[in-house]
Recover the amino acids of this structure.
């Protein structure tokens, strides 16, 4: 194989034999690298994996000796079978770098790369770039040149770029000047910052996918240097130094799993969305991709310039950034949803006289709601060609720009996706925008598309009369919508689906959210995800722990992870990554088991974000709430929380009578559950008692409003507990209390117990208890 790879220029390393490639994957090596040697690794002694290509022994030399693992050919075709794999080579000389010619080198090789891509590739075939070190700078410069080129074959490169994967690329300057690649950085100087700013603009405009991998030990580019620094960035660490981070020993290499998993995800997204003509379909990209028009069975040429301009006005950058950044589900996961009766009924339009076409997926933070919604939307898009319906989706992102978490962004995105299939409404909107521009100017037309009420009216008009096509809409993470709009959005979709049903319009909407905020919609079926995802978690853990070669240890780790997961998929993903990294570093089983009690940094960030919107008054109440929920010596039963919630508020009621007459009195357990969910922001739940003997003498009298049912499933003796042990560890082993309220002292656990004691003393002082004791 090495003989087939030219030292310079573009070489085809692999092509599918029986079909046209769906994508070109282009590898660009780093400083002082080689298009073969940079990606080839000595085979691990225990690895017995045969090449995964359509060309057996492609990288061998026929000598019978153990050949290096050239993973772009020996391994990657199994992940991306219908892709063409190309290697780009160039020469760098240290003398040129020392002479200060690095900027010219990058520009020169980027021009060469653009020229050869223009000659050697088919227009519109999706491109995936995998770049190591300096190769990443060449790719960024090449894309910048492509974006400004007037030559069709050159400009088409940026239009066809689906993804860029950076491996240890220095995106910004570094204080360390010792390694060769750092010499490159020192000479480039401000060029790095300028190149990065230009690349970020291209990323935002063309909406391709970007992934950053950083090396660990002996890094030529430290973490701050190899980070792009963009909000959309998803950086991941590879357990290898700068030179070895792009070489893998086999399919069991954990580092290969990380990089190949990303490539497989990108490849599958392309393979699922490439039409017969080979055009890449990025639903969030500019209209020139033509994907939306084709998706609705129309021809882009049929659209008038006014209609195209109308759709362009609805589009906004990052429209699909959040959904694109979501990883595809692991193999053999998510299947349960499509067999669930409530989902099948919704998807197939059954029982619309009862649910009016509305379905709600709910779950704890981190259970995989967005992954399920992305997979459900993907399947519905694939089914459009065979069925007479149209589909659209929006994924709220609280961490995104305003349009990514507002109703305005939601309606603009849905209209952008649906109007190509509703030509009459598209024409009406185009005329309205033209008239508005003519009468009041461009700013007025732009304001019209920034007005929630106007957009809502436009959306309602699309479904005001019977349509030939049924419509499926997926709205993910409703809880990440603007706080003041969440409830009104839920009620809007209830009203919208009921109105459509009355008008004979087949509109079906699937929502997803966390349990908090607690919103109930009468007649809307709900699917609680954590009640159904245990098999998915088991399948994922089994797949990820395959590299562990000791069966007993692997089984113990699998069982322990499953037992502790409580349906929180995100915790499982993060903790398995940590365990595999520790395993690679030679840690023993005892150490790995201890890591299951560590709260991953990403979860700490998630929990912190959940509390971000609390007011100062709410923070004080929430701190006291978690002091009781976390520090109590036993799980507290639901009926006890009627009193706890009453007496942790300020000012404390002086009597039960005063409490019963207050705004905070809880009439029943259902109301209490909603309060618990609200105060805890969904991190505490009410659950049945499990494995606990019933105490016959247990609190035979209750002074609260409830009757004291001993029903384990629905009664008030159910317990109130955190949704997952990582929440408890967030408060006990991390800075959970001080993150929740910075005014908490340096001894939050001791302060918490004192707070509980003070509440107990306040409770003892109420007058009714004196009467009760005297009666006994």
């Amino acid at each position: 194989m090495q003989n087939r790879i030219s030292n310079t220029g573009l070489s085809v390393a692999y092509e599918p034999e029986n079909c046209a490639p769906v994508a070109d994957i282009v590898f660009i090596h780093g400083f002082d690298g080689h298009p073969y040697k940079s990606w080839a690794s000595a085979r691990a002694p225990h690895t017995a994996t045969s090449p995964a290509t359509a060309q057996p022994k492609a990288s061998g030399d026929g000598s019978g000796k153990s050949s290096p693992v050239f993973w772009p050919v020996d391994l990657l075709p199994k992940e991306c079978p219908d892709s063409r794999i190309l290697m780009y080579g160039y020469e760098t000389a240290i003398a040129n770098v020392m002479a200060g010619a690095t900027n010219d080198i990058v520009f020169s090789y980027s021009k060469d790369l653009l020229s050869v891509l223009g000659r050697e590739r088919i227009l519109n075939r999706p491109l995936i770039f995998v770049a190591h070190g300096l190769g990443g700078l060449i790719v960024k410069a090449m894309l910048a040149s492509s974006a400004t080129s007037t030559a069709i074959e050159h400009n088409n490169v940026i239009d066809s770029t689906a993804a860029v994967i950076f491996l240890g690329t220095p995106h910004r300057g570094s204080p360390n000047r010792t390694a060769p690649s750092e010499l490159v950085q020192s000479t480039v100087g401000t060029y790095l910052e300028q190149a990065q700013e230009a690349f970020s603009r291209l990323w935002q405009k063309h909406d391709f996918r970007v992934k950053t991998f950083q090396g660990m030990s002996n890094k030529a580019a430290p973490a701050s240097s190899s980070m792009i620094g963009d909000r959309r960035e998803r950086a991941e660490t590879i357990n290898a130094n700068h030179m070895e981070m792009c070489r893998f020993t086999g399919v069991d290499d954990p580092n290969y799993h990380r990089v190949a998993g990303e490539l497989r995800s990108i490849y599958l997204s392309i393979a699922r969305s490439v039409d017969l003509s080979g055009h890449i379909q990025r639903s969030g990209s500019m209209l020139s991709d033509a994907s939306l028009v084709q998706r609705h069975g129309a021809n882009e040429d049929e659209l008038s310039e006014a209609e195209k301009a109308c759709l362009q006005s609805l589009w906004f950058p990052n429209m699909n950034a959040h959904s694109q950044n979501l990883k595809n589900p692991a193999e053999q996961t998510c299947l349960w949803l499509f067999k669930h009766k409530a989902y099948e009924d919704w998807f197939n339009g059954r029982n619309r006289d009862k649910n009016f076409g509305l379905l709600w997926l709910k779950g704890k933070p981190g259970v995989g709601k967005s992954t399920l919604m992305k997979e459900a939307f993907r399947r519905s898009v694939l089914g459009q060609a065979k069925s007479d319906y149209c589909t659209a989706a929006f994924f709220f992102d609280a961490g995104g720009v305003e349009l990514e978490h507002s109703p305005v962004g939601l309606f603009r995105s849905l209209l952008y996706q649906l109007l190509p299939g509703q030509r009459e409404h598209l024409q009406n909107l185009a005329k309205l925008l033209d008239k508005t521009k003519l009468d009041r100017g461009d700013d007025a037309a732009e304001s019209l598309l920034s007005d929630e009420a106007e957009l809502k009216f436009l959306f309602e008009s699309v479904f005001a009369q019977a349509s030939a096509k049924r419509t499926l809409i997926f709205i993910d993470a409703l809880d990440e919508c603007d706080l003041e709009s969440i409830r009104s959005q839920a009620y809007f979709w209830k009203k919208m689906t009921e109105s459509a049903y009355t008008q004979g319009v087949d509109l079906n909407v699937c929502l997803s959210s966390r349990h908090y905020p607690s919103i109930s919609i009468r007649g809307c079926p709900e699917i609680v995800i954590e009640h159904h995802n245990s098999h998915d978690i088991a399948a994922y853990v089994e797949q990820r722990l395959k590299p562990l070669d000791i069966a007993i240890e692997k089984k113990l780790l699998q069982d322990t992870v499953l037992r502790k997961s409580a349906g929180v998929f995100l915790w499982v993903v993060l903790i398995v990554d940590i365990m595999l990294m520790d395993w690679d570093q030679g840690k023993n089983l005892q150490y790995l088991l201890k890591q299951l009690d560590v709260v991953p940094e990403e979860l700490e960030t998630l929990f912190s974000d959940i509390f971000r919107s609390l007011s100062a008054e709410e923070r004080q109440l929430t701190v006291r709430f978690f002091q009781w929920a976390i520090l109590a010596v036993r799980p507290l039963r639901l009926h006890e929380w009627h009193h706890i919630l009453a007496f942790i508020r300020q000012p404390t009621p002086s009597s039960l009578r005063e409490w019963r007459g207050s705004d905070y009195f809880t009439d029943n357990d259902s109301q209490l559950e909603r309060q618990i969910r609200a105060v805890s922001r969904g991190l505490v739940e009410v659950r049945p008692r499990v494995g606990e003997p019933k105490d016959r003498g247990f609190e035979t009298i209750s002074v609260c409003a409830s009757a004291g049912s001993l029903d384990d499933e629905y009664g008030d003796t159910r317990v109130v507990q955190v949704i997952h042990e990582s929440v408890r560890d967030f408060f006990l082993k991390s800075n959970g209390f001080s993150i929740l309220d910075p005014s908490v002292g340096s001894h939050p656990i001791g302060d918490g117990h004192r707070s509980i004691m003070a509440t107990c003393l306040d409770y003892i002082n109420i007058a009714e208890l004196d009467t009760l004791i005297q009666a006994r």
